[in-house]
């Protein structure tokens, strides 16, 4: 009887111990789970902080790249500013020099126009009105303030170039000749500056400008009529260029 009681008591003690052990185990498991959750929360916080740190590092690197780009851009702008400052200095020097040169160019242009005027007056009188008007236009041009010195210089040199081209070109144009108090319409034939001839519109009268006598001189030889007509056709590009006979007078120097 006593043995059974002891066995019952022992079983009860064992059961109580098992219950207590289970409670402790559950408590430990619960605390372990809670600690695990805390660790997981802490790890998430750490991961979030790591992500923030990496994001800040990327932003920092981007800022560094931006700063490097701005430094390069500023350096380039500085070089441009230095170059512009150098150009401005050169322009200032050029302007000062141009002012001095302009003071010398204007008197030169006046002398060139005077020389051109004299040359036209003593030259063979072809296109005389046109050439005289060109010289008069140049004189008027010099007095106008709205034109720059470079434009005035260009126009004067252009006039000289035109006069120069007259020396190696051939042309035909219409005009009038006054001969023995008689004026009649003609076709002029200019061959460079070596010959200026005319032929009346009827084809009956021909002649040339005698630069020694400064007068128009009639020609009666039929060969001249034929050659002047041929020269007019060549000038008008009606026929191909060929040799023609022209009246020329050489200046003979008198010996002392």
Sum up the structure in keywords.
256 residues, alpha+beta, 5-stranded antiparallel beta sheet, 5 strands, 66% helix, disordered C terminus, UCP028069, coiled coil, DUF3450 domain-containing protein, signal
Task: Describe what you observe in this structure.
The N and C termini lie far apart (189 Å). Helix 1 packs across helix 3 and helix 2 (128-142) runs antiparallel to helix 3. Mean pLDDT is 83; it is low at 250-256. Among the domains are: 97-166; 168-250, no CATH class. The chain has a five-stranded antiparallel beta sheet, covered by helices on one side. Strand 1 (170-179) and strand 2 (182-191) form a beta hairpin. The chain is α+β, with helices and mostly antiparallel strands and 256 residues long. It contains four helices and five strands. The protein has helices spanning 2-122, 128-142, 149-166, 222-235; strands at residues 170-179, 182-191, 195-200, 206-210, 215-219. Residues 1-21 form the signal peptide. It comes from Alteromonas sediminis.
What is this structure's SSE topology?
Elements: H1 2-122, H2 128-142, H3 149-166, E1 170-179, E2 182-191, E3 195-200, E4 206-210, E5 215-219, H4 222-235
Antiparallel strand pairs: 1-2, 2-3, 3-4, 4-5
Strand % is 5-15%
Q: What is the count of DSSP helices, taking H or I runs of 4+ residues?
A: 4
What's the total number of strands? 5
| Radius of gyration over C-alpha positions, nearest whole angstrom | 56 Å
Q: From N to C, what is the helix and strand string?
A: HHHEEEEEH
């Amino acid at each position: 009887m006593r043995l059974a009681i002891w066995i019952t008591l022992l079983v009860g003690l064992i059961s109580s111990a098992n219950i207590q052990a289970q409670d402790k185990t559950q408590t430990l498991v619960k605390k372990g789970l809670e600690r695990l959750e805390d660790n997981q929360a802490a790890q998430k916080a750490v991961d979030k902080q790591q992500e923030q740190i990496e994001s800040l590092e990327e932003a920092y690197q981007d800022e560094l790249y931006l700063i490097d780009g701005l430094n390069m851009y500023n350096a380039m702008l500085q070089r441009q500013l230095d170059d512009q400052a150098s150009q401005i200095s050169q322009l200032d020097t050029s302007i000062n020099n141009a002012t001095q040169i302009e003071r010398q160019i204007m008197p030169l242009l006046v002398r060139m126009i005077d020389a051109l005027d004299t040359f036209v007056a003593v030259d063979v009188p072809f296109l005389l009105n046109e050439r005289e008007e060109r010289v008069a236009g140049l004189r008027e041009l010099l007095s106008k303030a709205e034109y720059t010195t470079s434009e005035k210089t260009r126009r004067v040199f252009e006039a000289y170039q035109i006069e120069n081209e007259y020396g190696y070109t051939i042309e035909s144009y219409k005009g009038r000749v006054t001969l023995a108090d008689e004026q009649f319409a003609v076709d002029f034939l200019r061959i460079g500056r070596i010959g200026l001839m005319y032929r009346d519109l009827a084809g009956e009268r021909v002649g040339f400008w005698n630069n020694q006598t400064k007068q128009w001189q009639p020609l009666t030889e039929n060969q001249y009529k034929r050659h002047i007509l041929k020269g007019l056709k060549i000038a008008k590009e009606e026929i191909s260029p060929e040799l023609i006979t022209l009246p020329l007078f050489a200046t003979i120097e008198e010996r002392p």
